[in-house]
Amino acid sequence: MSKLVLARELHDSLVAMSRASLPNEACGLVGGVATEHGWEARSVHPVKNSLASPTAFALDGAAMIDAETRIDDSGNEVIGVWHSHPTSAPVPSMVDLANAAVYDPNGVFLQLVVSMQGFAPVVRAYLYGDETTNESGDTNGQLLRKYWLVRFGS
Ligand SMILES: [Zn+2]
Fold first, then answer.
1. How many CB atoms lie under 10 A from the CB of residue 79?
2. CB 38 within 8 A of CB 3
3. What is the per-residue pLDDT for 150?
4. Given 41, 76, 77, 141, which residue has the most CB atoms within 10 angstroms?
5. What local confidence, expressed as pLDDT, does residue 22 receive?
6. What are the φ and ψ backbone dihedral angles of 152, each rounded to 5 degrees?
7. Does residue 91 register a pLDDT over 90?
8. Residue ranges making up the domain that contains 127
9. Which pLDDT score is estimated for 134?
10. HSE of 31 in the Cβ direction (CA atoms, 13 Å)?
């Protein structure tokens, strides 16, 4: 089973950034390292949502390069893209999937979705384009592997 290890501190940081950008979607990059069983996140970075929309996001180009540079400088690699869903479930939307198919057809980057919909925010991680699992119930038939999120710390 593939795993993303996301420390409590990083999880809480994603939620805080998502809350700060309400009512619009927040987005950014995740830095980390590959592990035997998946990935371990080491840092999370906000990137300006150039669409400034409550239902869509696009990573601002210059801000994304800044975040990539910070991740590179820390000795880690970009392992994922995160964004928030202010009022919907922690499941990639049809647009999210379409964008993943265009920008990440080989499933190189995790997609982390932070749902602010409920009383308690929920973070989930997905990898696009894995042919071994079809989470069809969640994704309208698109190929998507759901990652188990492992949190350390309290
Ligand atoms: Zn989305």
1. 24
2. yes
3. 63
4. 41
5. 97
6. -115, 150
7. no
8. 3-150
9. 42
10. 20
Q: List the structure tokens of 87.
A: 């009022």
Distance CA 91, CA 94 (A): 9
Give tens-digit pLDDT for 109-135: 888 999 999 889 999 888 876 544 444
Neighbours of ion ligand 1 (CB under 5 A): 93, 96
Max Cα distance, the chain (Å)? 39
Query: Does residue 139 surpass a pLDDT of 70?
Result: no
The reply to whether 9 belongs to the active site is no
What percentage of the chain reaches a pLDDT higher than 70?
82
Number of domains in the chain: 1
Give the distance (Å) from ligand 1 centre to CA of residue 64.
Answer: 17
Residue corresponding to tokens 């990440």: 104
- pTM of the predicted structure, to 2 decimals: 0.86
Q: Ligand 1 centroid vs 129 CA: distance in angstroms? A: 16
**What is the DSSP secondary structure assignment for residue 26, as one 8-state letter?**
P
Q: Where are the beta strands (DSSP E) in 88-131?
A: 110-115, 122-128
Through-space distance between the first and last CA atoms of the chain, rounded to whole angstroms: 23
pLDDT of residue 108: 79
What's the CATH number where 113 sits?
A: 3.40.140.10
In 14-88, beta strands by DSSP E: 27-35, 38-47, 77-85
Structure tokens at 38: 């998946």
